[in-house]
Design a protein that fits this description.
The structure holds three protein chains of three kinds. By secondary structure, chain A is an all-alpha fold. Helix content of chain A is 56%, strand content 0%. Chain A contains four helices and no strands. The chains are: A mainly alpha, B mainly alpha, C alpha/beta. The interface between A and B is medium-sized, with 22 and 24 residues.
């Protein structure tokens, strides 16, 4: 079961910030530097780390970190 | 009906009265009177295109239903594809048909073939680029599961045809505007006042700044050969403020009018000429279009090419800007303007790793050390403006050579220097007010405390006085109406 | 909502006097180049104020002439009269059908002319009429009439002129100076004589006549008004080089002849484009002499 804390290293790496705090309800507006450019890198980073591949439709439907987590868990069969 | 006309003010007064006093009992009544008013408003421009607008409404309303109710992913995708093609088909036909025919004919002529003239005399329906994009964002948001289909066709019709934003935006989103239409609006004093303030400020920018600069810009761009380099440079700077005053003024009026009905519209400009980089500029200029393109063009393309790292990003950025250019006009100089901005992103895409946001940290105020970044960015924007304002690639090149190839180093020389100077002083007043009001969306709203009422009224009176003394009555329509 | 309407109304009440006085002060103190929409003393032709003063004192006349500058510069009551008729020329600068209608509507009952000569200028049909409204306002025409003109044609320069004039005449009670010009002279009864000079403008720019629908409507209203009051009228177009340069001159010829009283003459041949005109649109005193001799029989003695 993937949890929010598992995402933090990816964010820290892409956004070059060790002090990222994430919760299920966090959105891009809450995180400094999380713009559309870095969003692409985040997706790539998450896919690499968890060895999954998302469709465009899935990615575009994410409204917050919680959606990413749910999506990940669905894909890895944990849900 | 132009916003800056007596007819519009009278129209607005009536709609305001009906909305809050006669049709205020329920949200459906409120929406209904707004839809009716919107079609009346649109008919003043051209009643024939009301039918086209209605067609666009139906295509997307039912398209959205089909997408959501589609049984499987494949059907969903096809429903989306067909709806998108229908939307784009209408847009392409009315806006781009002649462009394609012309370009094709030009291409053939290079091979010695001169065929008949196939160009149709198609009238461009006003606002078509805007309401088509509204519709597209709706169905795409349904496809991306960001919103549920709207089952109330009155609400949806209002979403697309709402008169303040019908002709030149802002380009609204279903996620932002539709929820507001689902509730009965209750009049709010602060919102009403803010509405009036926005309308006032918008008229100032449009009537005093944009309209007085317009004749100068037109003269310089129509006859660049008659003017020296310094004058032509002044002309581009004048255009920068003309297009800003025109377009941001228009959207301020649109947002202000909408506030009078208790409906909030997206902010479209956030002091763009104070940007410290080109990416930041695009996050502050015509924000509703930038974010639309970001969500529905850049993102899908960038995600598609995410395997190619930075090159993938660059392709996505470049293609997005090409489309942006093309959206602005069915002409090559617009496309090249788009490409120009796309290329300017290269240093930001390829520098370092991941790095800080492209769009610049939230500006806390104007810093002295930011001045050079602001100036450099402004210069790059100015260079692009020649392509944007010229009516063809050739005249743009003429203008550029007029600037570059003039080695006489004279001072600017043209008719009407006094009027021009006065207007630049007014531009300065506008900029100073914007700097002071940097953290408000509207410089006039800075004195919002009740104790400062007299100061507030003095400011309103001052702005109205400036409008009365300096507005130019010979130029009327908004630049972005052609889009 | 109540508070909103109340506060907005109070603001407007405060703003109107503030604005009027500011316009007045700004107009008096600031050079005209720096106040584009306040036309105090830039658009005033002293001749209009002279004419309007005389008009106010007139009680009955025989022949009334209306129209734009080609009216008050081309019809000399001294030359046209001769049978003892009282002739008055109420032409004003850039007068369009909108103002012509107003002038006639206001004054026909008082003056009871036997004949109205309407000198038409195709150019003026293409204007929105602001210049003429401003001219009338700043030269002291009846405020209730100019207010109506303002409503018919809402425009900032006209509004500013109206407020300026109001403050000037009612609050400051300033006496309107009679302006003297070196190049022209007010000869009485509305006629203005230009110092003799010759036309240097021989360029002819060919253009299309594009009348404003509003002006065409008011032209028709003028005809209806005259017919309703049973007043004989003649529509004339004095010699003008610019009128001939319109591509579709048959269009305005048609409009004028629809009135049934359009006098057409192939007279332009009799006029020299340089020696009889002081510019491409107006006859000089030589030309006026010739023209009035030609037209006199059709106006005077023709009851």
């Amino acid at each position: 079961m993937i949890e929010v804390k598992d995402l933090i290293p990816v964010f820290a790496d892409v956004l070059e910030n060790e002090n990222i705090i994430l919760e299920l309800s966090t959105t891009a507006d809450h995180v400094e530097g999380w713009d559309s450019l870095n969003h692409i890198y985040l997706v790539v980073g998450i896919e690499k780390k968890f060895k999954v591949k998302f469709t465009t439709q899935e990615i575009q439907s994410w409204k917050n970190v919680g959606d990413i987590i749910n999506n990940l868990n669905r894909k890895t069969g944990a849900l | 009906m132009l916003f800056n006309s007596v007819e519009f003010l009278v129209f607005l007064g009536f709609v305001f009265g009906f909305y809050w006093f006669l049709f205020s009992k329920s949200k459906d009544l409120q929406n209904g009177i707004l839809v009716l008013s919107s079609f009346i408003f649109y008919s003043f421009w051209d009643w024939r295109f009301s039918a086209l607008l209605l067609l666009s409404v139906f295509i997307n309303y039912f398209g959205g239903l089909f997408i959501e109710e589609a049984g499987d992913q494949k059907k969903k995708y096809w429903a989306l594809l067909i709806t998108v093609i229908l939307n784009l088909g209408i847009l392409i036909y009315f806006k781009y048909f002649n462009f394609f025919i012309d370009s094709f004919a030009t291409l053939l002529s290079y091979f010695g073939y001169h065929g008949e003239n196939w160009v149709l005399s198609i009238v461009l329906p006003i606002g078509i680029s805007f309401y088509t994009f509204h519709g597209l964002s709706y169905i795409l948001d349904i496809y991306y599961s960001r919103i549920r289909t709207n089952r109330n066709i009155l609400e949806y019709t209002l979403f697309v045809s709402y008169f303040p934003l019908l002709v030149a935006g802002p380009i609204e989103r279903a996620t932002h505007l539709l929820p507001q239409l689902k509730n009965k609006r209750i009049f709010n004093y602060q919102q009403g006042i803010q509405g009036l303030e926005l309308i006032l400020w918008g008229f100032f920018k449009k009537l005093v700044i944009a309209d007085t600069l317009a004749p100068f810009v037109a003269e310089f761009f129509n006859n660049p050969g008659n003017y020296n380099s310094a004058t032509l440079i002044l002309g581009v700077i004048a255009f920068a403020f003309q297009v800003y005053g025109d377009f941001s003024g228009y959207t301020d009026i649109a947002r202000g009018v909408s506030k009078l009905f208790g409906i909030e519209l997206l902010v479209n400009f956030r002091y763009p000429y104070f940007s410290r980089s080109i990416p930041e500029f695009w996050s502050r200029w015509h924000m509703s279009l930038s974010s639309w393109l970001n969500d529905y063009v850049f993102m899908p393309i960038a995600l598609r090419f995410r395997g190619f790292g930075r090159h993938g990003i660059f392709i996505a950025v470049f293609l997005t800007f090409l489309i942006s250019g093309f959206w602005h006009g069915a002409a090559w100089h617009f496309v090249i303007w788009g490409a120009y901005h796309g290329i300017l992103y290269i240093p930001f895409i390829y520098r370092g790793k991941g790095l800080k946001s492209m769009f610049g940290a939230k500006q806390k105020g104007i810093d002295f050390k930011d001045y050079s970044a602001i100036t450099v960015t402004f210069i790059f924007v100015l260079i692009g403006y020649v392509l944007f304002r010229a009516d063809s690639l050739r005249s743009a090149l003429n203008y550029y050579s007029g600037i570059i190839l003039d080695f006489s180093f004279q001072l600017p020389s043209f008719e009407g220097k006094i009027r021009f100077l006065i207007t630049m002083v007014l531009v300065l007043i506008m900029l100073i007010l914007e700097v002071i009001g940097f953290h408000h969306t509207n410089p006039i709203s800075i004195f919002s405390s009740p104790k400062l009422r007299l100061v507030r009224w003095a400011l309103y009176a001052f702005i109205l006085f400036l409008i009365g003394v300096f507005m130019n009555t010979n130029v009327s329509s908004f630049i972005y109406f052609q889009f | 909502m109540k508070r909103f309407l109340r506060d907005t109304s109070i603001f407007i009440l405060f703003f109107i006097p503030f604005y009027s006085i500011s316009i007045y002060l700004f107009g008096r103190l600031v050079p005209s180049d720096f106040r584009p929409n306040i036309l105090y003393n830039t658009k005033m032709y002293g001749t209009t104020s002279n004419m309007l003063k005389e008009l106010r004192s007139k009680e009955r006349i025989d022949i009334l002439i209306v129209g734009a500058s080609d009216a008050y510069r081309s019809y000399d009551p001294r030359l046209l009269g001769g049978n003892g008729e009282i002739i008055f020329n109420a032409g004003t600068s850039s007068q369009t059908p909108l103002q012509t209608y107003t002038l006639l509507n206001d004054n026909l009952d008082k003056l009871k002319p036997k004949l109205v000569v309407y000198e038409v200028s195709p150019v003026c049909f293409e204007l929105d009429g602001v210049e003429s409204t401003v001219d009338l306002i700043l030269n002291g025409y009846s405020r209730s009439s100019t207010l109506k003109l303002l409503f018919k044609n809402p425009e900032i320069q006209a509004l500013n002129s109206f407020l300026f004039d109001y403050v000037d005449a009612v609050l400051v009670k300033r006496h309107i100076d009679t302006f003297y010009s070196v190049k022209e002279k007010y000869m009485g009864n509305g006629y203005v004589e230009m110092n003799l000079s010759f036309n240097k403008d021989t360029t002819s720019v060919v253009k299309n006549w594009n009348p404003k629908p509003k002006q065409l409507t008011y032209f028709k209203k003028i005809i209806d008004l005259l017919k309703e009051k049973n007043i004989e009228f003649k529509i004339i177009n004095a010699p003008s080089l610019t009128d001939r340069s319109y591509k579709n001159s048959t269009d305005f010829e048609f409009v004028f002849s629809e009135s049934g009283q359009y006098l057409v003459y192939p007279y332009l041949k009799k006029f020299d484009p340089v020696y009889d005109f002081f510019d491409a649109s107006h006859l000089n005193s030589n030309g006026v002499l010739k023209w009035n001799r030609i037209i006199k029989d059709r106006i005077s003695g023709n009851k």
